[in-house]
Amino acid sequence: MLAAAARPTRTIVPALLAVCLAAGCSMKQTSPAQTCDSGGVNLIAFASDRGHHGQYDVYLYDIDGVGYRLLRNLNSSVVSDSSPVLSADNQLVAFVSARGATGSDILLYERDVCGFVNTPGLNTAGDETEPAFSGDISRLAFVRDTMNLGTPHRRIRVIDATGSALALVPMPGLDTLAAFDDWSPAPDQTAGNIVFDSDREGTAHLYRYQRSSRGIDSLLYLRGADGIDIEPAVTPDLHFLCFASNRASGSGGFDLYLFDLNARSPVALPAGVNTAGDERHPAINAAGDVIAYQSRTSASAPWNVRYAFLHASPPAISTISRIDSTASDVQPSLVFP
Questions:
Q1: How many CB atoms are located within 10 Å of the residue 9 CB?
Q2: Under DSSP, is residue 277 helix (H, G, I), strand (E, B) or coil?
Q3: Strand bridging mode 193-198 / 278-284
Q4: By the 8 A CB rule, do 14 and 1 touch?
Q5: d(Cα 129, Cα 141) in Å, to the nearest integer?
Q6: What sign results for the dihedral spanned by CA atoms 199, 203, 204, 208?
Q7: What DSSP designation does 214 have?
Q8: What is the CA radius of gyration of the chain?
Q9: Where are the domains of the chain?
Q10: Which neighbouring-strand residues pair with 82?
Q11: Maximum distance among all alpha carbons in the chain?
């Protein structure tokens, strides 16, 4: 049930997470309203600890309405929910939660029914984190640790939803038990290509995996003379790539960088995106002209979620207001058709 399209037909019939509800999982309503909220076009999902410091909930911000959409029954009252990602049709939210019995699990929430999609076989012993939808919503990439195989390293996995049941997609070339970590998957339209982070050379850099050829491109033309490159986000057509880096040539701390992968050349970001503080965790829309990201003025300051229209004249950069000025808003996901 990952897939949808124009509101496209989904490939797997959704089912509420009846097992979890029967087991008494604690679900906190974000509103007393009795109706589900599946509205909005240009949306940003993010995690925030506003209201209870250190425990994160998932929020959904409507850029056009300059306000919040309901996520009834999604957040837990006792554990953190984080790393939310939106499907391209805005109807699914995948996120990470510690409410399960196997560490960090990935849950899938459907907005138009205010409930959870059953995902048998997705969550296993160990941690599963960092979900990312393919552009056509047929697949979900994520990170799974290998503790259950006796090797404590993170690996990228992909769940396919185009058949009658969820199934892991073979990832030849990424399924090694070597002593390094792969994380932060950013899939293209079908997850046939995935840009990701790895420390396989000792330092965190970005790589591109192509499933058809089993090849891994080191993307050397992206690298700076120093620093690490992390948290990639790509357009579904793999035209543009945005990521964070702490290379010394930046404005300060971590900065965002935008690359045209077709031309293999950097694209200048508008003044005001990068600051003397930190900019991290970018998300980019399909057209490559809007980004969302988290920003802070110093290492001790709380994070803000910001979004920027790259081709506006002058460029427009907005900050989502925090309800609690001491809270942190982090890990934005963007859908802006």
A1: 8
A2: coil
A3: unpaired
A4: yes
A5: 10
A6: negative
A7: T
A8: 19
A9: 18-335
A10: 96
A11: 55
Predicted local distance difference test score (pLDDT) of residue 149 = 56
* Angle CA 232–235–239, to nearest 5: 100
Q: Hey, what amino acid is at 285?
A: N
∠ at Cα 124 (123, 129), nearest 5°?
55
The DSSP 8-state label assigned to residue 321 in this structure reads: P
pLDDT in tens, 97-107: 988 766 899 99
Burial class (CB in 10 A: 0-12, 13-18, 19+), 67: exposed
Dihedral pair phi/psi, residue 149, rounded to 5°:
-100, 5
Query: Structure pTM?
Result: 0.88
Instruction: Give me the pLDDT at residue 119, please.
Output: 82
Which residue shows structure tokens 């000792």?
202
195 token code pair: 């840009």
- Cis check for the bond before 187: say yes or no (omega within 30 of 0): no
CA distances from 184 to 69, 70, 124, 128, 264 (A): 27, 27, 19, 12, 21
Average pLDDT of span 250-263: 95
CB 123 within 8 A of CB 142: no
**Residue showing tokens 């960090």:** 104
Q: What does the buried/exposed string (b/e) look like for 299-332 if buried means 16 or more CB atoms within 10 Å of the residue's CB?
A: eeebbbbbbbbbeeeeeebeebebeeeebbbbbb
Q: Would you say domain 18-335 falls under CATH 2.120.10.30?
A: yes
The per-residue DSSP string of 86-102 comes to E-TTS-EEEEEES-SSS
